[in-house]
Amino acid sequence: MALGLGGFRSGRLSGCSGERWSPGHPYRSSLDGTTCGELARACRKATGDGWLQPLGLAHALVETAHHALTVAADPTDRASVAQALAGTTLDTIAGTLDWTRGPTPDIALMPLVGGQWQHGPGGPRLAVVSNTALPDVPLTGELTPAW
Questions:
Q1: What DSSP designation does 28 have?
Q2: pTM
């Protein structure tokens, strides 16, 4: 995350980061159709805490593991599961994970949106301020200067 010191001096938030997942992303779980927003609300209800970006990514990895174990010729054989994973392209709660494209074998890349911490009615919120790489993710704020 990049932080502008001017934001601390002026009392404005100015942290910007690449955002991997948020409740506003337009994806659903391949397991049960849960939306990103529903997952974030369930996390808050279960823990009393707000969502964190790794929540959607961890869920997507569980989805990927379930898929690989389901389609593997022998789910008890590591090589069989690895082969199933290597051939996987899966729509997850974190977006489409394509394990076939690389840049190297068994790596799935995720495009990011630009986020900025901003003041919201309930406290700080991570606003999506750039969606060039993922136009389906709605913008939820405008990039604001720290000064």
A1: B
A2: 0.83
